Amino acid sequence: MTAKLFLHGVPDSPAIWRPLIAALDLGDVPVAVPALPGFTAPLPAGFAATKEAYADWAVGQAETLFAAHGPVDIIGHDWGALIAQRVAMLRPDLIRSWAISNAVIEPEYRGHRIARIWNTPVLGEIFMALSSADKLAEGLAAQGMPANIAAEEAEQWKNKDKRRAILKLYRSAKGLSFAHDWARDIPKLPAAGILVWGADDPYVELAVARRYAAANATPMTVIDGAGHWAIAERPDEASAALRRFWGAIES
Questions:
Q1: DSSP letter at 43?
Q2: Rounded distance, CA 123 to CA 211, Å?
Q3: Mean pLDDT confidence for 70-99
Q4: What is the mean pLDDT of the chain?
Q5: Residue 211 neighbours by CB distance under 10 Å
Q6: In the chain, what percentage of residues exceed pLDDT 90?
Q7: Could you tell me if residue 182 is inside a domain?
Q8: Is residue 206 assigned to a domain?
Q9: Which of 3, 11, 89, 135 has the fewest Cβ atoms within 10 Å of its own Cβ atom?
């Protein structure tokens, strides 16, 4: 049984994976669904909250699973997708396959409007100070996230360390620009990878995913009518894509 490592994104928590994991019905398969440091608890002392720090932390998560169960299937969404790809680039020896949803390390992508705001000193802090949990819950639910999960994510938003970590993370990536560092290592990715994409994502447009898939011969499943949180909005379709993908690896 190949262990599964699920990495969530921003502004989420492990709760975002519940619908998909339930739909996958993994039974006795070992599963790890950790929270990014600082996202559901205070930031650990000395943790820099940069993209490199989160990638190193995720490598540690994969190493732990590998030591107990062998090569890992890593699955990521949003920033978790970017970190999952980075883990697979840095330590392909740990990874059997990678599967990512609605974010990808693509050299031409330069980030969405909110990413640019968070990347800007002072402006990002003002945005965070004015962002209420209630408005976040409403916004996430309006974009397709199940309302109960949106409420949980909004509750986590009250954690000031989470907001600080998000600003540090985005600024370490210059918003969301990887052309000069992580994107250069795309050839190091294990061959077994897949994109699962909500077609109506307002943050990372479908065109970005199509461009990446074409350039790197990566299979992609597009979920029509779903947005950025397709993994939770349409878990049955996302889980079917993953089961087909994993089944093809095993056959």
A1: P
A2: 31
A3: 98
A4: 96
A5: 16
A6: 98
A7: yes
A8: yes
A9: 135
pLDDT average, residue stretch 158-172: 96
Which helix (H) or strand (E) segment holds residue 19: the answer is helix 18-24
Domain tally, the chain: 1
Q: How far apart are CA 206 and CA 201, in angstroms?
A: 7
Range of the domain at 19: 4-110+178-250
Both tokens assigned to 224: 């029509």
The C-alpha torsion from 25 through 36 and 50 to 217, rounded to 10°, is: 0
Residue at 157 is within a domain: no
- Identity at 96, one-letter amino acid code: R
Average pLDDT estimate for 72-79: 98
DSSP bridge pairs for 4 = 31, 73
In this structure, what token pair is assigned to residue 34?
Answer: 């950790």
Q: How far apart are CA 108 and CA 94, in angstroms?
A: 28
Q: Can you name the residues that pair with 221 across neighbouring β-strands?
A: 196
Question: Residue 240 is inside which H or E element, if any?
Answer: helix 235-250
Q: Which two tokens stand for residue 198?
A: 């909500």
- What integer is the mean pLDDT of 85-93? 98
pLDDT tens digit string along 189-204?
Answer: 999 999 999 999 999 9
Burial 48-74 (b: 16+ CB within 10 A, else e): ebbbebbbbbbbebbebbbeeeebbbb
CB 82 within 8 A of CB 105: yes
Structure tokens at 11: 């502004």
Q: At 250, is the pLDDT very low, low, confident or very high (cuts 50, 70, 90)?
A: confident
